[in-house]
């Protein structure tokens, strides 16, 4: 078992219990997580190839043209796992620019679909490098709304170190679990704001034998997931 395996399973858990909704994702680890969830504990989950085809066990299950995705977004029948260049304690996301948006130091993707995603349906995040540069006190520009700005539901944040959620009275970020081999102090040190830390923080669950077999022999036999996690 590797850290990447744990991260895939942690991402899969974000879709547990969602039923027949569309799972969308940015990045290899979330994609593997969605497919793993569909093959194990969330068989009703709808998973695409990222273009216009619905897949089940690698086979074409149906057609989902891009225009139809907007209807699913508006109806709330989608759960996306996005990336973020910056995240704050309430789950406000920045993928637009670093620095003052009038004269940014770095121009990034732009807001893209983040506003509509965060106000219409569940949103989670995958952060492959947990650091104070990503987890900041205030994002430079709000691309995706957080809980203090009317987000529908920011569910989980999965990183290379831990899983975080928003199960606090003010819906700010909380440490939910630490990956095997990671300490709570390491996560706190890598977070640029005051994180809610329970008295007892459990380890992130490890993949089952079945999940490891699916990952290694079926979903990612070339081990590409190892390149996304340090």
TrEMBL record:
Signal peptide: none annotated. InterPro entries: CoA_trans_fam_I, NagB/RpiA_transferase-like. One of its GO terms (molecular function) is CoA-transferase activity. Belongs to the 3-oxoacid CoA-transferase subunit B family. PANTHER family: ACETATE COA-TRANSFERASE YDIF (PTHR43293), CHOLESTEROL RING-CLEAVING HYDROLASE IPDB SUBUNIT (PTHR43293:SF3). This is CoA-transferase. The lineage of its organism: Bacteria, Bacillati, Actinomycetota, Actinomycetes, Micromonosporales.
């Amino acid at each position: 078992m590797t850290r990447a395996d744990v991260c895939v399973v942690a991402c899969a858990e974000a879709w547990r219990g969602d039923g027949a909704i569309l799972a969308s994702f940015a990045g290899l680890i979330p994609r593997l997580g969605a497919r793993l969830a569909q093959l194990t504990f969330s068989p009703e989950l709808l998973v695409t190839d990222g273009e216009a085809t619905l897949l089940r066990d690698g086979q074409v299950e149906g057609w989902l043209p891009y225009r139809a995705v907007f209807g699913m977004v508006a109806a709330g029948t989608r759960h996306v796992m996005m990336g973020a260049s910056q995240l704050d304690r309430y789950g406000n996301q920045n993928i637009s620019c670093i620095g003052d948006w009038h004269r940014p130091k770095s121009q990034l993707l732009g807001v893209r679909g983040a506003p509509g995603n965060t106000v219409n349906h569940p949103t989670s995040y995958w952060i492959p490098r947990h650091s104070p540069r990503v987890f900041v006190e205030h994002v430079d520009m709000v691309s995706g709304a957080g809980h203090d700005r009317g987000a529908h539901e920011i569910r989980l944040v999965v990183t290379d170190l831990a899983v975080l959620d928003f199960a606090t009275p003010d819906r700010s970020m909380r440490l939910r679990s630490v990956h095997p081999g990671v300490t709570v102090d390491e996560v706190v040190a890598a977070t640029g704001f005051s994180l809610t830390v329970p008295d007892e923080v459990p380890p992130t669950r490890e993949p089952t034998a079945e999940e490891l077999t699916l990952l290694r022999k079926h979903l990612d036999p070339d081990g590409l997931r190892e390149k996304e996690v340090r």
